[in-house]
TrEMBL record:
GO terms for MF: endonuclease activity
Function as written in the Swiss-Prot or TrEMBL entry: CRISPR (clustered regularly interspaced short palindromic repeat), is an adaptive immune system that provides protection against mobile genetic elements (viruses, transposable elements and conjugative plasmids). CRISPR clusters contain spacers, sequences complementary to antecedent mobile elements, and target invading nucleic acids. CRISPR clusters are transcribed and processed into CRISPR RNA (crRNA). Acts as a dsDNA endonuclease. Involved in the integration of spacer DNA into the CRISPR cassette.
Protein known as: CRISPR-associated endonuclease Cas1
Lineage: Bacteria, Bacillati, Bacillota, Bacilli, Lactobacillales
InterPro entries the UniProt entry points to: Cas1 (IPR050646), CRISPR-assoc_Cas1 (IPR002729), CRISPR-assoc_Cas1_C (IPR042206), CRISPR-assoc_Cas1_DVULG (IPR019856), CRISPR-assoc_Cas1_N (IPR042211)
Top-rank lineage group of the source organism: Bacteria
PANTHER family linked: CRISPR-ASSOCIATED ENDONUCLEASE CAS1 1 (PTHR34353)
HAMAP family recorded: Cas1
Keywords annotated in UniProt: Antiviral defense, DNA-binding, Endonuclease, Hydrolase, Magnesium, Manganese, Metal-binding, Nuclease
Residues involved in Mn(2+) binding: 166, 234, 249
Length: 343
């Protein structure tokens, strides 16, 4: 299994990235404020960037260190990666499957199967651990209804029908998300998903977490030789990492949502970590982003046992393991792509 190496996050929008030997250098107004050895870094994510030197981008591309540029709200701007990894046969098969909706749905339904299964598990765990603090009957009913959608998803043969099933399941899951917030309820609440821009603290955190997860998944896909921009459920759209969005579907709840909920319920993040702009858009403060990213990096180091591989790995390697399994399926080494069923 691949070794987990660090991602360098640059949250200060005034920092300029450059190269000095084998070191990544951060500068502010021509003064060096940080220096990181490149051998400790597998990717760079920078928010509201001032820029990066051509020599650094060329250096990183040659050594397969991706650089992702996001705006200060975490919205994707651009990504610099090196030459394609793996063999051309794998990518050609990926493109053939993507062009064939009948073959695409056989993979796509497993992404959604894992997503709904994991979301249901989250609700079941809440009923077990916090039964006295929630509407228990409502949780049990939604869990039952989610369970009843699983066979339909598993047998689905049409992408539009699959998207409809996923949408229905998402509505049911989101209807209870606010009750998963057990602390700081005056400052953290969820009445529905709002994006571009987020309208409350919870949506701001969810959007940020999904951006970080998508970046990790895209890097993992490129590492195993797949094209992160060509998906099966999410169809082609310029600039969108469609396959990364596919693969992260069954990780959204158990990876990103649970992480956000833990920061709220453990009071790691507070109302002081957010600010509201004139257009009512909510974003994290610079200190809030740093706190969020620090805990995200710690989360990636936690050890779990992969439900399909049976190996003990860190959470940070789960995107890589799923990318590797998808590549094996496309090569014909597996009969089906195994969803990430978390327990």
């Amino acid at each position: 299994m691949r070794r987990l190496i660090n991602t360098l996050f640059v949250t200060n929008p005034d920092h300029y990235l450059s190269l000095d030997g084998d070191n990544i250098v951060l500068k502010h107004e021509n003064s060096i404020v940080g220096r990181v050895p490149s051998h400790n870094v597998e990717s760079i994510v920078t928010f509201g960037y001032t820029g990066a030197s051509p020599s650094l981008m060329g250096y990183c591309a040659k050594r397969n260190i991706s650089i992702t540029f996001l705006d200060q709200n975490g919205r994707f701007r651009a990504r610099v990666i090196g030459s394609s990894q793996g063999n051309v046969t794998l990518r050609k098969e990926q493109y053939r499957v993507s062009d064939d909706e009948h073959r695409s749905v056989k993979i796509a339904r497993n992404f959604i199967l894992g997503k709904v299964y994991n979301n249901r598990w989250m609700l079941e765990r809440t009923t077990r651990d916090h039964g006295l603090r929630i509407d228990l009957e409502r949780f049990k009913l939604v869990s039952k209804n989610l369970g009843e959608t699983l066979p339909a998803i598993q047998s689905c043969e049409d992408l539009d029908e699959l998207r409809g099933l996923e949408g229905q399941a998402a509505v049911m899951y989101n209807s209870l998300f606010n009750e998963l917030i057990l602390q700081q309820k005056d400052d953290f609440y969820f009445y529905g998903r709002t994006r571009r821009p987020p309208k409350d603290n919870v949506n701001a955190m969810l959007s940020f977490a999904y951006t970080l997860l998508a970046n990790d998944v895209a890097s993992a896909l490129e590492t195993v030789g797949l094209d992160a921009y060509v998906g099966f459920l999410h169809r082609d759209r310029p600039g969108r990492v469609s396959l990364a969005l596919d693969v992260m579907e069954d990780l959204r709840g158990v990876y990103a949502d649970r992480f956000v909920l833990s920061l709220i319920n453990k009071k790691v993040m507070t109302k002081d970590d957010f600010l509201t702009k004139e257009n009512n858009a909510v974003t994290m403060t610079d200190d809030g982003k740093r706190k969020f990213i620090q805990n995200w990096q710690q989360k990636k180091q936690e050890k779990i046992t992969h439900p399909y591989l049976g190996e003990k790995i860190s959470w940070g390697l789960v995107p890589y393991s799923q990318a590797l399994l998808l590549a094996r399926y496309l090569r014909g080494d597996l009969d089906a792509f195994p969803p990430f069923f978390w327990k």
